[in-house]
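worker-03 picked up job from queue 'complexes'. Input manifest follows; two sequence lines, order preserved.
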Amino acid sequence: MVLTCPVVMGRTTRRNGASELSRRAVLGVGALLALGGAAAPLTGCGLFDSDEPPTPDPLAPMIDEALRLAAGLRAAGVAHPDLADRLTPLAEAHEAHAAELARVTGTPLPSGPAASSGATGASPTDRAATLTALRHAERAGRDTASKACAEAPADRVALLGSITAARASHLEALK
Amino acid sequence: MTAPPDAGEALAQALIAEYAAIWAYGPIGVRLTGAERKAAITAEAAHRARRDALVVQLSTGGGSVPPDRAGYALPFPVTDRASALQLAVQVEERTAAFWRAVLPTSAGAERDRALGALVEYAVRATRWRRSAGISPLTVAFPGRPG
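worker-03 finished. Artifact:
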């Protein structure tokens, strides 16, 4: 069974450690034995999925968030061409984050332009207000990434640490 | 969650990086004046605080504490303000990378501390980049090798 479900079992290992893996593996075998005489279909990973419904990858929402941050910066750069040199590298960083998050989560990147974070919606003509709104969005993004970093399995934590640090440095760059 | 066995090694490498950062801020500080010198002093104090915490953590954990050295090779000569700022950027970005490497072997409060160091050094690198007139002010993946 383990060999048929490498992804599911691997995730259990990362999140909960080896002892949890063995406990769950035992439970899985127990469930298999319990169901042995029943008519339930014992097909592959469905057995493991049955006691834990599949949940979306916890990092998937961060892809949309990164693209929204990028869209907000690009819109601000259009509204304020004198800021574009400063804002474009930040937008590119968010897009690189989205691509990397899509890669590690196995999620396809959405096609088409992302909706702006709304950072430039209020008063696009006011440069200071635009920068304030962009900083607000970066701060929220930094906090999302920081929380995800604290909870992440070992193979994702370095990426999330870099994304947290990047968003924090964007805050500084927008001063 | 218990940390994997190479956690001590990642912390020891971070400590060596902090030793080198503290050493580097000597030649950096003497080439700077005013607010920039003050910023260098603040930065050096932050690296000293992390060094001290690491020495305590590694020695109480029973691990080996790598010794400081009398000097460290600089990547280029620091002869003026421009080269001092350039080195300050490198010191922060390279030290950030060692704390990033601590993240996968840490959990809980230790991971929070490692992330705090990574974030702080990335932000300070951005400030030094601004002082040095380097564009862009940020990198996409702070601390990532390569």
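worker-03 released lock.
Chain B has one domain: 7-132.
Residues 7-132 of chain B form a domain with the Ferritin fold (CATH 1.20.1260.10).
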